[in-house]
Specification:
The protein is an alpha+beta fold. Helix content is 47%, strand content 24%. It binds adenosine-5'-diphosphate. Residues 445, 449-450, 452-453, 477, 479-482, 490, 495-497, 502, 507-513, 536 line the site of adenosine-5'-diphosphate (ADP).
């Protein structure tokens, strides 16, 4: 059925003239001198000429642009003569209105029997689409170029060393300023890596580079040691780098280069090394100090232990008070003698040590001194008690300035205590007739309690008010304070407040008792005001004016 139809169509007579004129391409025939002898309507339409204006009147060359004419004379005609045909040359034709159309031009020579050129039959196809495509391509290329430049600019600005190594020889294709700064003055650009930086040849880094190129796998190095020269002539230095090697691929996904990002961290690594070295030294020193401290702590611990067992002994001594006092008196006497000689030895040793710069010895001597003072005060307290109990406490009345005594006692306390801030807000001048040493021990007892029962760094405020017939001394602290029910009992013999706060504070509960006895024997008053957790103020007053001389 289809075949029959085809045959029918084929039997319709074709009009070659119509085919010639209405073909979708231009046909033109011209003589060897270029004179046009025939052109089809398609071409006439493109050019805007009538057949009458073109045929027999114009030459083919005049349809071409200037460059086209030269090309036609120099290349097209000789070619046609030699090979008899020319294929697909790109030409610009000028229309009657002066515009330009792009055509592809093919031609066949019509020759006589002797091979002489009779005429040229040419076929022209519209090349505008292709031209447009070419222009688009050109534009795209330009855009790509701009992009590439922008990228290059970006690379140049990155705050890290960046380079692009091209091809298997790793030729430096791009080197940004920071990368170049790693090798000041060394020529890198356009050189293969091994020519530019030959010292990497026998280093592990070279194998890493080759691996990345071979496998395409990115490699990130952290603080890697790469011995390199800075300058061409310089020595090879141990340098450390953080870096990334990344494969660059072409349009077929094959590796064709490497991208390198690098930051030198030599200074950081070396500085850390020094710090670590310093740290190790410090550590050794610390260990030494810790050992010394431990020794000191052990000594302190022993002393505290003695104190605790004494406390325990007192508590456990269930026999009569008299027995207890008798024992304490005896023990204190026994202790006093070796303690006095120990104190003397310490003082001589301290004198001999003067001028030695050994901080450990100086520190140890100071601490030993403090401990001896503490024990002496403790034993004196015990002795005072026994004297008190046996009515043997002697009061030696003498006139003296109480304000001066206060200042002296503060200075003395400050010699052994650096942890608190002592302030004397008011200190009226007051002359009293009293036992200077004993009143001194009352003041010291107040001061040392203020220090013992308050936190380091807090204030201890001392006042001395002269009133009409008495002088009132107070020592105020910002410490643990006391409950009202405890307050009265503080002046009782052996009374100590039992609480979590006081558990680790050494003491026997005799200081305030002895103080109150001393003040009582001076016809004075002694009392305390306190608020739990806020602080306490301990007072005593002594009569003035009617003091015997
Ligand atoms: P010691 O302090 O040796 O125990 P004291 O007789 O000096 O003996 O003091 C008796 C008790 O009074 C202490 O154990 C303590 O509980 C309390 N005390 C003394 N002074 C203060 C103070 N400044 N703040 C709080 N409590 C104090």
């Amino acid at each position: 059925m289809g075949e029959e139809n085809n045959n029918k169509l084929l039997s319709v007579p074709m009009d070659p003239e119509r085919l010639y004129h209405q073909a979708p391409c231009g046909y033109i025939t011209f003589l060897p001198d270029g004179a046009i002898i025939k052109a089809n309507e398609t071409l006439l339409n493109w050019l805007g000429y009538t057949a009458g204006e073109l045929v027999g009147r114009m030459k083919f060359g005049s349809l071409l642009s200037k460059g086209g004419q030269i090309h036609y004379e120099m290349f097209f005609r000789p070619m046609l003569n030699v090979s008899g045909s020319v294929k697909e040359l790109s030409y610009e034709l000028q229309t009657k209105s002066g515009t330009v159309i792009h055509v592809l031009f093919g031609a066949v020579a019509i020759k006589d029997e002797q091979g002489g050129l009779l005429a040229v039959n040419a076929i022209l196809t519209d090349n505008r689409d292709r031209k447009r495509y070419e222009q688009d391509l050109l534009q795209a290329r330009k855009r790509a170029e701009v992009e590439k430049q922008r990228l290059t600019h970006f690379f140049m600005q990155i705050p890290a060393g960046v380079c692009v190594l091209d091809g298997p020889d790793l030729v430096f294709e791009l080197v940004n300023p920071l990368y170049q700064q790693l090798f000041p003055g060394r020529a890198l650009l356009h050189k293969p890596l091994l020519d530019a930086v030959p010292e990497v040849r026998n280093q592990p880094i070279w194998n890493i580079l080759m691996d990345v190129y071979r496998t395409g796998q990115t490699f990130a190095g952290n603080e890697l040691l790469i011995p390199l020269r800075r300058t061409e002539e310089g020595p090879i230095e141990n340098r450390y780098f953080n870096f990334i090697y990344q494969a660059r691929t072409n349009e077929f996904d094959a590796v064709d280069g490497l991208l390198v990002f690098v930051i030198e961290v030599t200074a950081t690594v070396l500085a850390r090394g020094e710090i670590e070295e310093g740290y190790r030294e410090q550590q050794a020193l610390n260990e030494e100090l810790a050992a010394t401290n431990e020794e000191l702590n052990a000594t302190n611990e022993e002393l505290s232990e003695t104190q605790r067992s004494l406390q325990q002994m007192i508590a456990n001594f269930e026999a009569s008070e008299r027995q207890k006092d008798g024992f304490i008196g005896m023990a204190s006497h026994e202790l006093k003698t070796p303690l006095t000689s120990l104190n003397a030895i310490l003082q001589v040793a301290s004198l001999k040590l003067k001028g030695t710069a050994d901080p450990f010895l100086n520190n140890a001597m100071a601490k030993a001194g403090i401990q001896v003072k503490r024990m002496t005060a403790m034993i004196n307290g015990f002795l005072d008690i026994t004297r008190l109990e046996s009515g043997k406490m002697q009061i030696d009345h003498k006139k003296f300035n109480l304000d001066e005594l206060i200042k002296e006692m503060i200075e003395e306390t400050q010699l052994t205590t650096r942890s608190h801030i002592f302030q004397v807000t008011t200190c009226d001048q007051a002359t009293v007739s009293a036992d200077r040493d004993k009143i001194g021990s009352v003041i010291t007892n107040f001061l040392s309690n203020a220090v013992k029962y308050s936190a380091a760094g807090t204030n201890v405020i001392v006042n001395c008010f002269l009133k009409s017939n008495e002088v009132e001394v107070s020592v105020q602290d910002e410490g643990i304070g006391a409950k009202p029910e405890d307050l009265q009992k503080l002046f009782d013999r052996y009374y100590r407040v039992e609480s979590a706060d006081t558990r680790n504070i050494a003491g026997f509960g005799i200081g305030l008792y002895v103080s109150s006895e001393i003040i009582r024997q001076h016809d004075g008053r002694i009392w305390a005001e306190s608020e739990l957790g806020k602080g306490s103020t301990f007072y005593f007053s002594l009569p003035v004016g009617n003091a015997p001389n």
